[in-house]
């Protein structure tokens, strides 16, 4: 959003040059981390413990956001220049990057965004012409999600703590919106959020019937380290309440208008 506001006051040629530079830097980073995943470890606060591409960010899911934003901006530029072949290649690269990083939430959100864009951003004529292709893509995505993403989520629930942490903190943001409609504040949330996370975790266990790993949750609540909602929008809801919802609904409406 900050880039959008800045670019509205810049010359279009300069904006396109910035997008190109970001695009080529992204390609270079992907190439380096794909062939030698720890080559950029010196630029990180901690060393990588797996071979998933993270694009000089703390974790792969954050790297995915950066990659998608840059590639989508590049796609807008290519469309404006009527460079269809290059745009198709750019979209193919976007799919490949998402498969390489393999962020569960990222892939689910891309599929959901594609469905929303198809129904709200295309004409009836375009829908009728591309409907078979749309169904084919949804079937392929559904099979991939069922075979790969859901199995990763199941493994995460059984063996790790990230599912419990992400789900509990996200639920806590919803509870916070009810208790504190105008938000908990940028600093005072530190005093209120831990109790809401504990409530959310207990509720999640009761509803799901699963014995979730509470190691990370307990560490967050007891020490205050990394105390936050593991979702950017969810965390902003905790801090600013309904104002964050209004802000993002506004962006959503303008995007798909």
Structure write-up:
The chain has helices at 2-7, 12-35, 60-80, 84-101, 104-120, 124-159, 162-179, 189-208, 215-223, 232-240, 242-255. The chain has 257 residues and is mainly α. Helix 7 (162-179) crosses helix 8, helix 7 (162-179) packs parallel to helix 10 (232-240) and helix 10 (232-240) packs across helix 11. The model has no long low-confidence stretch (mean pLDDT 81).
Write the layout of secondary structure elements.
Elements lengths: L1 H6 L4 H24 L24 H21 L3 H18 L2 H17 L3 H36 L2 H18 L9 H20 L6 H9 L8 H9 L1 H14 L2
Helix pairs in contact: 2-3, 3-4, 5-6, 7-8, 7-10, 8-9, 10-11
In short:
The protein is mostly helical.
Count the helices. How many?
11
Structural class: mainly alpha
From the alpha carbons, calculate the radius of gyration and give it in angstroms.
20 Å
Could you state the order of secondary-structure elements as H and E?
HHHHHHHHHHH
The residue ranges in which pLDDT falls below 50 over 5 or more consecutive positions are none
- N/C terminus separation: 17 Å
Largest sheet, described in full? Answer: none
Beta strands, count: 0
Shape: globular
Portion in beta strands: under 5%
Taking all residues together, what is the mean pLDDT? 81
Helix content: over 70%
């Amino acid at each position: 959003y900050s880039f959008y506001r800045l670019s509205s006051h810049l010359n279009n040629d300069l904006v396109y040059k910035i997008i190109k530079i970001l695009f080529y830097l992204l390609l270079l980073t992907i190439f380096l981390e794909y062939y030698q995943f720890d080559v950029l470890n010196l630029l990180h606060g901690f060393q990588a413990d797996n071979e998933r591409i993270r694009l000089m960010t703390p974790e792969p899911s954050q790297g995915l956001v950066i990659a998608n934003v840059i590639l989508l901006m590049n796609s807008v530029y290519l469309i404006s220049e009527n460079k269809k072949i290059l745009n198709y290649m750019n979209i193919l690269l976007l799919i490949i990057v998402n498969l390489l990083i393999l962020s569960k939430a990222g892939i689910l959100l891309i599929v959901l965004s594609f469905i929303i864009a198809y129904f709200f951003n295309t004409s009836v004529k375009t829908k009728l012409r591309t409907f078979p292709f749309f169904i084919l893509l949804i079937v392929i995505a559904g099979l991939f999600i069922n075979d790969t993403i859901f199995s990763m989520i199941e493994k995460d629930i059984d063996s790790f703590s990230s599912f419990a942490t992400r789900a509990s903190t996200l639920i806590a943001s919803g509870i916070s919106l009810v208790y504190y409609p105008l938000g908990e504040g940028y600093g005072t949330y530190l005093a209120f959020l831990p109790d809401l996370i504990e409530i959310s975790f207990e509720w999640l266990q009761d509803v799901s019937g699963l014995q979730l790993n509470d190691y990370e949750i307990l560490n967050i609540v007891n020490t205050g380290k990394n105390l936050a909602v593991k979702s950017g929008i969810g965390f902003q809801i905790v801090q600013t309440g309904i104002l964050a919802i209004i802000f993002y609904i506004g962006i959503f409406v303008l995007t798909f208008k």
